[in-house]
Amino acid sequence: MTAAPKARLSILPATSHIGVMAEAPTIAAQVIPFLDDATPPMPAGFF
Q1: What is the enclosing helix (H) or strand (E) of 25?
Q2: Torsions phi, psi of 9, nearest 5?
Q3: Is there a contact between 20 and 27 (Cβ–Cβ < 8 Å)?
Q4: By the 8 A CB rule, do 13 and 6 touch?
Q5: Tens digits of per-residue pLDDT, 35-46?
Q6: In the chain, helix, strand, coil percent, each to 5?
Q7: Cβ distance 40 to 29 under 8 Å?
Q8: Which pLDDT tens digit goes with each residue over 5-41?
Q9: Which of 3, 7, 9, 34 is most buried by its number of CB atoms within 10 A?
Q10: How far apart are CA 15 and CA 17, in angstroms?
Q11: What gap in Å lies between CA 42 and CA 10, rounded to an integer?
Q12: What's the confidence (pLDDT) of residue 8?
């Protein structure tokens, strides 16, 4: 490997691995740009 792999981390505060199912719009806002290889928007309330 000559370069670090592209990777992203998305943290959804106060959301469990089960509760994430209720966050479909937030997940879509993060996943679609990742698949398109674009920078995702900053989640609301994130500072």
Answers
A1: helix 24-35
A2: -125, 130
A3: yes
A4: no
A5: 887 776 777 776
A6: 35, 0, 65
A7: yes
A8: 677 787 777 888 888 888 888 888 888 887 887 776 7
A9: 34
A10: 7
A11: 10
A12: 75
**Chain centre distance of CA 30:** 4
Other CB atoms within 10 A of residue 8 CB: 9
Q: Torsion angle, CA of 2/40/31/28, rounded to 10 degrees?
A: 180
Residue type present at position 1: M
| The length of the chain, given as a count of residues | 47
Among 10, 13, 16, 7, CA closest to 42: 10
| Alpha-carbon separation of residue 37 from 27, 30, 41, 45 (angstroms) | 15, 11, 12, 23
Residue with tokens 């900053």: 42
